[in-house]
Design goal:
There is one protein chain. The longest helix has about 45 residues, at about 20-65. The mean pLDDT is about 85. This protein has helices spanning about 20-65, 95-100, 140; strands spanning about 1-5, 10-15, 85, 110-115, 125-135, 150-155. It has one domain (about 1-155). The radius of gyration is 28 Å and the shape is rod-shaped. Helices cover about 35% and strands about 25% of the residues. The strands form two sheets. The chain has a four-stranded antiparallel β-sheet. The chain has a two-stranded antiparallel ribbon with strand order 1-2. Helix 1 (about 20-65) packs across helix 2.
């Protein structure tokens, strides 16, 4: 761009501002790209969090029918009342339920924990399922930092 300004002589004088335009573009583009990457990161985190919630809910639904009255020969028998901790790479029944809906997640990074707060798995007792995984935004991930843990929780009552 060419701008005109007057000096002490009163005559117009050409002033070139190419470098200023380049600097302004670099600043505004870097800010815009940071916002776009931040929106993408937030969308990915929201998706993964929703999948973790769905995994916890599905495993919770399976746990309420694997109570103390469940037959030992039926689909893995009773679950609990001891805490069960596993990930989606395991071959147990809990991981099998979670694997049916874990698309888009790194299976080895998802941890599933089932707890029975009352210490039993009798009908009417609660079961809590928590699915967790580490997450860090793209810009921070390149430096090896982890910002937060995404969680999905389900609290349900054992039916039988």
């Amino acid at each position: 761009m060419i701008f005109f300004e007057t000096r002490n002589t009163g005559k117009p004088h050409k002033v070139q501002r190419r470098a200023a335009t380049l600097v302004e573009a670099a600043i505004s583009l870097s800010a815009m790209i940071t916002v776009i990457v931040g929106c993408l990161d937030f969308s990915v985190a929201a998706y993964k969090s929703q999948v973790l919630n769905h995994i916890a809910q599905r495993i919770g639904r399976a746990a309420v029918i694997h109570g103390s009255l469940s037959h030992a020969t039926w689909n893995g028998g009773p679950w609990g009342p001891n805490t069960i901790t596993t990930d989606l790479t395991s071959t147990n029944q809990v991981a099998a339920v979670g694997n049916t809906i874990s698309s888009g997640l790194k299976k080895s990074s998802v941890t599933i924990e089932l707890t029975w707060p009352n210490g039993n798995h009798n009908p009417g007792s609660p079961v809590i399922v928590e699915a967790t995984m580490p997450w860090s935004p793209m810009l921070i991930k390149t430096f090896g930092y982890q910002i937060m843990t995404l969680r999905g929780r389900s609290y349900q009552i054992i039916q039988h």
